[in-house]
Amino acid sequence: MSTKKEAYLCLSAMLRAREPRLLNDERAGRMLDAASYEEAAKLLADCGYPDMSHATASEVEQILAERRNELFGEIGRLSPDKELVDVFKLKYDYHNAKAIIKSEAVGVDAKRLLSDAGRVPGEKLLELYNEEHFSRMPPILGKAMADAKAVLARTANPQLSDFVLDRAWFEELRALAEKLDNDFLRGYAEILTDSANLKSAVRTLRMGKNQDFLAEVLVEGGSVSVQRIIAAGDRESLAALYAHTPLEKAAQLGAEALSGGSMTAFERACDNAVNDCLRSAKLISYGPEAVIAYLFAVEGEIQAVRMILTGRLAGVKPQTIRERLRDLYA
């Protein structure tokens, strides 16, 4: 057995052993049914979280960020493919890029909006942007931020800058899948693209925007081509595009949302279709697939914990939180 296969076998075994401690739907339900925020937070002890029963919303955010960063660091050190963690770090790079450019557009300080979970720490990315050192950023990100800055200067419209950054994010994700030469990762990139495009199409139709606007927001790389989505034009045609695909149910809910149905249910179904794709990694004994799936599971767990705890702190009704939660991996 090669050294790389041995390394993945050991890493996968370690992560599989941790899976029983992940937050699952049953545990999340108990947190929502708990009589108080304090009781809900204490239920996370079984998942390895520190006591957050007296934490403020900002302290919850800090604890969750530290948990994510520790995991990214650990997997980055142990994985034979050091760029595997970048699959998940990309999201935070582009979150930071959007926050920086939007803050510039409205003249506010972006620092409080930035995350250190990306490849480039948030404040470092802000510094490079302000000094226009785009060549010192990861290449695709640097070019995208330079282009987005130019679009903002020309149009004063931060939404158009967002479109530039979204396309670059998916371009980087596809490039990573090719560099790592992994079919599972290629499939993940494809369904993530399909989900994003379906969401964009439904939102565009709900807003009554035209095909030119839709062409701006869609990204290449999905199983349903951008040209076919643009040509669909109405809810029935849009739903038909995704028939017999993992997003079939989500597309049906999207069609309903265009006639007054729930956008929350539609967007939840899109995200759950992506989750289902990742769950298929459970059938793979070891390798990068198992690592990708675990990272995705922890990302989903952190999102759920944040939603439940900050929602309970804010007095949001448990049923409202429940309707917005995505299915958990465990």
Would you give an account of this structure?
This protein folds into three domains: 1-84 and 284-330, Topoisomerase I, Chain A, domain 4, CATH 1.10.132; 85-181, V-type ATP synthase subunit C fold; 183-283, V-type ATP synthase subunit C fold. Helix 5 (86-106) runs parallel beside helix 7 (139-155), helix 9 runs antiparallel to helix 14 (263-279) and helix 13 runs antiparallel to helix 14 (263-279). The chain is built from 16 helices and no strands. It is an all-alpha fold. It is globular.
Write the layout of secondary structure elements.
Blueprint lengths: L2 H16 L6 H9 L3 H6 L14 H22 L7 H21 L15 H9 L8 H17 L2 H23 L2 H25 L3 H7 L8 H7 L2 H7 L6 H10 L5 H17 L8 H26 L4 H7 L6
Helical content band: 55-70%
Going by helix content, strand content and strand pairing, the class is: mainly alpha
Tell me the count of domains: 3
Rg = 20 Å
User: How much strand?
Assistant: under 5%
Unreliable runs, pLDDT <50, ≥5 residues?
none
Main sheet overview: none
Average pLDDT over all residues: 91
What spatial form do the alpha-carbon principal axes imply?
globular
CATH class of the largest domain equals Mainly Alpha
CATH fold label of the largest domain: Topoisomerase I, Chain A, domain 4
Order of helices and strands: HHHHHHHHHHHHHHHH
Q: What is the number of helices?
A: 16
CATH architecture term of the largest domain: Orthogonal Bundle
CA(first)-CA(last) distance: 30 Å
Number of strands: 0
Primary descriptors:
single chain, 330 residues, Topoisomerase I, Chain A, domain 4, V-type ATP synthase subunit C fold, 3 domains, 0% strand, globular
